[in-house]
Specification:
Elements lengths: L1 H16 L25 H10 L2 H5 L18 H19 L3 H10 L8 H11 L6 H16 L6 H8 L10 H24 L10 H7 L3 H16 L9 H19 L8 H17 L6 H6 L5 H10 L3 H12 L8
Length: 337
């Protein structure tokens, strides 16, 4: 009897405590396929748990964030980036009285479709597959189709929409999706600065002084100030936004990171090898579709071959990509049996 009341209590608590601009779980547009109700969780909480327990989420721990195969345990991976986005997003959502569970679900799923070797892998697949490749749309494809051998995760519309529209220039349909869009930007700019400093690519003195004056002189101060500015400018409003000076400072810092880190020859010294591996693996499977795993073969009846090969390669972790390349193109040692 108690369990039957838990979900109802949670939904009533949302209606009672959240902003009038929040997305209430009881008002979700629903799932593509109906499922039996949960007595203990709201629909957005269920989506969060579905994502957390899926295979694509676990693979993020071995996918590059910025630095390929760094020496050291403290560089970010795609998984730790995802967790930082979720933390920043939840802090903003809670302060603005928006739906924290929806933000967390979107944040945990936003990079499920990311390629091996970070944005270098994304750019290469974008060049190789007809129709192009965008990791946000691939993340949506993962949760709608590719997970669970073609069944997908059957998430609510709001979570799927937020995942597929989390890039900075996208327009998600909920304010919670907008929060994740900004939280992603706040997270990667600031933790990439920290990793670039650790790798000797930049120093604190290299950061644009005007940005430091506005945003702060350390990662924790910058993130705290970015969150505070966003809460100040979005409080009880039907939109999510930064103040003009914080928006400008964030954009300038983003441009600095592209010039000094993301396109830095030293930081990207191994990328040419990585993208060549992806290119050769892509060409191999496109010519040898019968060598694809059984699940991906089933997709060939519904999707173009190059898109299916792209689906398979995008699922790779960095080290699995290296392993596949070795199996396909590096000869084994000859042994007498």
């Amino acid at each position: 009897m108690i369990m039957e009341n838990v979900k109802k209590f949670l939904e009533e608590n949302e209606a009672r405590t959240l902003s009038k601009y929040a997305t209430l779980s009881v008002n979700s547009k629903g799932r593509e396929h109906e499922i039996s109700p949960s007595d203990l969780r709201t629909e957005f909480q269920r989506d969060r748990d579905k994502i957390l327990h899926c295979k694509s989420f676990r693979r993020l721990k071995h996918k590059t964030q910025v630095f390929l195969a760094p020496e050291g345990d403290h560089y970010r991976t795609r998984l730790t980036h995802t967790l930082e986005v979720a933390q920043i997003g939840r802090t903003i959502a809670r302060a603005l009285r928006l739906n924290e569970d929806l933000v967390e679900a979107i944040a945990l799923g936003h990079d499920l479709g990311h390629t091996p070797f970070g944005h270098a892998g994304e750019r290469k697949l974008n060049d190789l597959v007809s129709g192009g490749f965008i990791h946000s749309k691939q993340s949506q494809r993962v949760v709608e189709l590719l997970e669970k051998n073609g069944k997908g995760l059957n998430l609510t519309f709001e979570v799927r929409d937020g995942i597929g529209n989390h890039r900075y220039n996208d327009t998600p349909s909920t304010l919670e999706g907008e929060i994740v869009k900004y939280a992603d930007r706040f997270a990667y700019i600031n933790h990439d600065i920290e990793d670039a400093r650790r790798g000797g690519v930049i120093t604190d003195a290299d950061l644009p002084k005007a940005c430091v004056e506005v945003l702060g002189n350390s990662k924790s101060k910058r993130i705290n100030n970015l969150i505070a500015d966003m809460v100040e400018n979005s409080w009880d409003k039907p939109y999510i936004k930064q103040s003009a000076n914080f928006d400008d400072a964030t954009a300038t810092l983003h441009e600095f990171m592209f010039e000094r880190v993301y396109l830095n020859a030293q930081a990207k010294s191994q990328e040419a090898k990585a993208v060549k591996m992806i290119e050769l693996i892509f060409e191999y499977y496109l010519k040898n579709l019968n060598k694809l795993p059984d699940f991906y073969k089933t997709l060939l009846d519904s999707y173009p071959a190059d898109r299916v090969v792209c689906d398979y390669i995008a699922s790779f972790s960095d080290r699995y990509c290296v392993r596949v390349f070795g199996e396909l193109f590096v000869p084994d040692e000859w042994k007498i049996l």
